[in-house]
Amino acid sequence: MTARIPRTAARVAVLAPDGSVLLLRYDNPEVGIHWAMPGGGLEPGESPREGACREVREETGWTDVEPGPLLCTWEHDFTRGTVPVRQHEHIYVARAPRRPPAGDVSAAHAADGIECARWWTPAELAAADEAMWPPNLADLLEGLRAHGPQDPAPDLGYVPNRVPGPAARD
């Protein structure tokens, strides 16, 4: 068992008026190809909400997205660079127009291993066979659409990553 360094992060489920969510595609050596919302590790002294705002700006170029309610929290393992981490994430919800990232975000994407950005409709997300972070993202967003934000937001606890097979690496 590899010792994992604790890391706190924040992400934002950016939802368009049609219910689509913006996801970023990563290819991580340990967990393979997966999709996640804009976000990442917190800087020293930064709150999860502050980190979520900063990460959205860095990864999308958008300066008008303000995180709203907390969708959920969860923990998972992966290797960031060469460091194995157990990441505790706060995932917020924000509303924004469906649009591409703005400006030059290529340096932030290269640094974080982001390959592309894509809007996923609720139907596409529900039918996806690709790995998502968190794995039950489609259900969480459907619950949000049907019932609004939960107070308190669910804590999913530790969720193991889907182990990539040969098809997941293509």
TrEMBL record:
Cited InterPro entries: Nudix_hydrolase (IPR020476), NUDIX_hydrolase-like_dom_sf (IPR015797), NUDIX_hydrolase_CS (IPR020084), NUDIX_hydrolase_dom (IPR000086)
UniProt keyword annotations, A-Z: Hydrolase, Magnesium
Signal peptide, first to last residue: none
Entry superkingdom: Bacteria
Annotated ranges, domain Nudix hydrolase: 6-145
Chain positions covered by the region annotation Disordered: 144-170
Coiled-coil stretches: none
UniProt-recorded Gene Ontology molecular function terms: hydrolase activity
Cofactor(s) essential for the protein: Mg(2+)
Pfam families assigned to the protein according to its UniProt record, in alphabetical order: NUDIX
Stated family: Belongs to the Nudix hydrolase family.
Listed name of the protein: ADP-ribose pyrophosphatase YjhB, NUDIX family
Species name: Actinacidiphila rubida
